[in-house]
Amino acid sequence: MGLSKQKLKSRINSINTTKKITKAMQLIAQVKLQKQRMHMEKNREYSNILKSTVNEIISRNKHSENKFLQEKSATAKLTFLFSSDMGLCGGYNSNMLKLVDTVIRKDDPIIVIGRKQRSWLISRGYNILNNEISSDNIDYETLKSFGNLGIEKYLNNEISGIQVLYTEFVNTVTFEPKLETLLPCIELGEKKYRAYNVEILFEPDENSILDELIPMMIHNVLYSTWIQTKTAEQGSRRLAMESATDNAEELSEKLLLKYNQARQAAITQEITEIVSGADAL
Predict the structure, then answer these.
(1) pTM of this prediction?
(2) SS3 of 163, please?
(3) Residue whose C-alpha is closest to residue 164's, from 176, 150, 152, 182
């Protein structure tokens, strides 16, 4: 049996209320996306120049014994994992967690930035080093201190390397979980990071420069991935809320059609009863 007119009207009102909420969240996410994207673009040039400089030095000194280029005997890898504080952003968090299962061992240490995935990781026995920290309120200095902690563990041979797991912002509709190795620092071999085609003299020497630049690069990568993660989060939330708003609109229209049909049927029945009563007289 179909729903009564009262129940249909109640469902329509409820769906329209939800639609207003999802539409508002969509607009808020759109504004935040534009702001985060500008922030990301401003940082990108500096980040690429820093990476290209480090990559160029490493490529010209392939047999360097710099402390940041050496393989370690430790087996554990430290992972920086960037997630969101909130849900309602489509497959943003679930896609990340699928990758976690394949690239992180449960005994390996993790530093988690963001609240949403923390409980999932704890419930499955992953080794989280840090206390809960919001991805919305973190700053460069905090990320730098986490980076220094990782560098210290690496140099003390407590870990074999450092990697970062985040969501890459490809474009406004594409966001991909990505794993990037920070230490040991290797030549990237990517054309976009090869900036120089001339002979370069390094002063005082290549190793001293790498000792300064590689920690700077690690700090910047953590900051850059945080910005990119937040940009991808807002983009994913905007798409999810846009889809939810469209679905609510479609469902509301279907229910309104049913409501009008039920209303028309009730009116027709009343007219029929009146006519039948008049004929009886």
Answers:
(1) 0.84
(2) strand
(3) 182
Beta strand segments in the chain, E: 77-82, 109-113, 127-128, 161-171, 174-183
CATH code of the domain containing 173: 3.40.1380.10
Query: What is the enclosing helix (H) or strand (E) of 43?
Result: helix 5-60
Residue 52 neighbours by CB distance under 10 Å = 17
For residues 192 and 50, the answer to whether their CB atoms sit within 8 Å is: no
Helix axes 206-280, 5-60, angle to 10 degrees: 170
End-to-end CA distance of the chain: 34
Q: Which two tokens stand for residue 1?
A: 């049996």
* Rounded-to-integer distance, Cα 33 and Cα 173, Å: 12
pLDDT value for 44: 87
Number of domains observed in the structure of the chain: 1
User: Residue 80 and residue 111: Cα distance in Å, rounded?
Assistant: 5
DSSP bridge pairs for 92:
none
Structural domain for 90, as ranges = 59-240
Distance between CA atoms of residues 50 and 52, nearest Å: 6
Q: Tokens in use for 168?
A: 């890459």
pLDDT tens-digit map of 95-149: 998 999 899 999 999 999 999 889 889 999 999 999 999 998 899 999 999 999 9
